[in-house]
Amino acid sequence: MGYTDRISAAPGETVRLFVSATGIAWTADLVRLHALEIPGASVPRRETPVQSVPAITRPALDQPSPVGSYVRVDAHPDDDHPAGLTLALTFLPTLLGEVAQTVIAQRTADGRAGWAFGVSADARAELTVATAAGVLRVRTATALTDGCWWHIRAVIDPVAGLVRLAVAPAGTFESNRVVTGVAAATSVEAPLTGEVRWAPDRPLLWGAGWLEEDRFPRDCFDGRIENPVLVAAATDGDLTGHPALIGAWDLAHGIGPAGFAAPSHIQDTGPRARHGRSVNHPTRAVTSSGWTGDTVDFRYAPEQYAAIHFHRSDMTDCGWISQASIALPGDLPSGVYAIRLTGDDGLQDRVPLFVRPPHGAATADALLVLPTNSYLAYANDHVGVDSPRTQVWDQAVQVLDPWWLYRDAHRELGLSMYESHADGHGVCFSSWRRPILTMRATVYNHDGPVWQFTGDLQLIDWLDRTGRSVDVVTDLDLHREGEDLLRRYATVLTGTHPEYPSREMLHAYESYAADGGRLMYLGGNGMYWVTGFDPQDEQVVEIRRWGGTQAWLAPPGEYHLSVTGQLGGIWRFRGRPPQKTFGVGFVGAGNTNGSAGYRRLVDDESPAAWIFDGVTDRDFGAGGVSGGAAGLEIDSVNPTHGTPAPAVVLATSVGHTDDILEARENFNMTSRVLGAARNPKVHSDLVLVPRENGGAVFSVGSIAFAGALFTADGDTGTDVSVLLGNVFDRFVSGAPVLDS
Amino acid sequence: MALSVNDRYILDDRVRPLVTAELIAEQRESPFGPQSPALAEVMDFIRRSPDPDLPRYIVLDTPAGFVIAARSPMPGQPPVPLDPSVVLPSRADAEHAIFRLRLADYGVLA
């Protein structure tokens, strides 16, 4: 399996390839993907080798991945402390028990040199010091309470010959999970029976004990650390003003109007400037012990957000050795490609790569923006296996094929944004710097028979087979280039589930349509979650879930994205409901048993009747891969939320069952009637929105729509296909979208 | 068994009386729906795995057919087939077999 250093590349650019393989050697070649196989739907895989790219063979490396986030402060020769060491910090454990965890340490892997502070498997605070007489452990007698803040002061005093650890409850009413049952302050000390063995050649780590091979964190921590201070002396006095100050790190430093400009930078405010660097994206912009609950925006009370949250399961960069690069030919057409990896042990993988048009140019009249942020959000998700709710949702027991089992076993590749860490904190980050095994040809059968990448390949297949040419770009391309990218095209298409846009992307779509561009929104539940790109590494995105139909809920006070400062949640609550630009917005979701077809609403005299040329029946779209053209996740018009008055509702879905349920943000009081069978609000609308300057938006409001482009025999002759072709051709032609 | 007080009530006072030979036959005939309200209620109860101490079943799609397994309590660890020699010819058969297993787990199937 493998990944690349970028998901989108232009012709002529070089893409670095990262591969982990068993066996002796692997070979990579480039193929263009025209269609992915959909078993049971008569859709065969179609791919074409790119002959102009020579195959590459390299020796196989079975490459492990570092799992767990941490902060690294590089080693310093002065970290040999003859006068002793004092550590003060405030921390919040979030998952105590079962195994020991290290909060902060500077030690060797074997523990024979250095020191560490952490929590023991039985939830006691513990200071460990390596000495010539062996390892000295000082442990408090009472157990800590997880979800609560603790202040500790640890002193290693070689002169007095003792070690002391004091632990006291900390935190405000608001910042602590509970207020009762919390242990009182306690202090323990023990004599130093041997000379302390420091580890000045090892990095100071937060959230991990040591780094195996200098990159694999061990003894990782679930919880938060707030502003640690280290002094190279044994003292009970002031620390930050102490002349022997090693470092005083301020986790609120760097917070500005746009969040953290450098989220991985950890500022040392002391004179030695021993700044740290976070790895694997521990969460910032989280509440610290002083949070009062009076603000939920970290930008306005940075001192109440002076903390960082580590998870043992954070993983945003596999960090594999790259053995090869692929130079893309300068004349390579824009499209969906894959680097085909073949091992001499018979294993094969296809690593997707999107080839955009040359920078500043268009090579087709239409552009398809592939919703790569959505691919990231669902990346490697294990919900189908882990979550008890899945079988209720799907109304079926999960069936795991060999690919499911393979990717389920590779948890080291990181989680999706639909999962939570073991401590219950939702996964805020997702990264391209890892294999994303949900983006493979194998059918993804948890959320739907086709989903995301496989769903969008249905559009690629249909466009290819009907002779309609498009360029392809990614969400990141659009985020970077904005409307300038879109305005090169007569028509812009979205994918089937473009759920995770940035503000820049939404602005680009709206500006394009307002300036006369023509948008085709070909999915459902689109333009939904507020999404931000890491300013230091745009291969990583962040979300905070609240206020929507959601897999988890951000903790109180943590609704803002660390990487942008923006209020997270859904765009609707930021004044950008999708209805304003696209005419429709999310209303319901369910499994394929709930899918339905559409009923035409406009008559032959309508100026929009041309859309139905060749569609003879009033009701259409009842078939398809997902049980009907309207299904999985669906959208409808809503003038209250911004559907423009000139919008023409062309058709609406009818006949859903109660397997499609209303989106939770769309009802206020609890309702007995959430299922679509008796809830008229839950339906999909096909809508045409004429815009100023000749612009227009056509929206299908359904993820399942693309699954109805083919007959059961795999032909492109369905009513849905005819209708979509009419719109595509008219939009590209530039002709008015309303007949006179 | 670690059913909550409310789930114990639901099991004893709502689910158990619904499970009849006819209902089991209906599930065999229509394992993926549509299903009667009575069967839907029983399915919703057992599928949400209200007792975390009981097995959470999944189906393995193997070259030979469908094999019933229990999910490992440790995420990422492989599921454990109940009996690898028992291979069911269809997904519907597997769905029905798991239905019966779950009813038995909850003491509803005689």
Oligomeric status of the shown chains? heterodimer
Task: Provide the residue-averaged pLDDT of chain A.
Answer: 95
Q: Report Rg of chain A.
A: 28 Å
Helix content of chain A: 10-25%
Strand proportion of chain B, as a percent range, falls in: 5-15%
CATH architecture of the largest domain in chain A: 3-Layer(aba) Sandwich
Please identify the top-level CATH class of the largest domain in chain A: Alpha Beta
Name the pair of protein chains with the most residues at their interface, and give those residue counts.
A-B, 23 and 27 residues
Number of helices of chain B: 4
Shape of chain B: globular
Distance between the termini of chain A: 56 Å
List keywords for this structure.
heterodimer; A: 740 residues; mainly beta; Immunoglobulin-like; Jelly Rolls; 15-stranded antiparallel sheet; 9-stranded mixed sheet; 10 helices; 44 strands; 11% helix; elongated; B: alpha+beta; 3-stranded antiparallel sheet; 4 helices; 3 strands
Explain the overall architecture.
The complex is a heterodimer of chains A (740) and B (110). Chain A is mostly beta strands and 740 residues long. Chain A has 3 domains: 2-64 and 318-355, Macroglobulin (MG2) domain (Immunoglobulin-like); 70-286 and 295-306, Jelly Rolls (Sandwich), CATH 2.60.120.200; 366-733, Class I glutamine amidotransferase (GATase) domain (Rossmann fold, 3-Layer(aba) Sandwich), CATH 3.40.50.880. In chain A, the strands form 8 sheets. Chain A has a 15-stranded antiparallel sheet that branches. In chain A, β9 and β10 form a beta hairpin. In chain A, α6 crosses α8 (503-514). Chain A is elongated and about 95 Å long. The relative contact order of chain A is 0.12. Chain B is globular, with a radius of gyration of 14 Å. Chain B has a 3-stranded antiparallel sheet. Chain B is an alpha+beta fold and 110 residues long. Chain B has one domain. Chain B starts with a helix and ends in a 5-residue tail after the last helix. The chains are: A mainly beta (740), B alpha+beta (110). At the A-B interface, α3, β30 and α4 of A face α3, β1 and α4 of B.
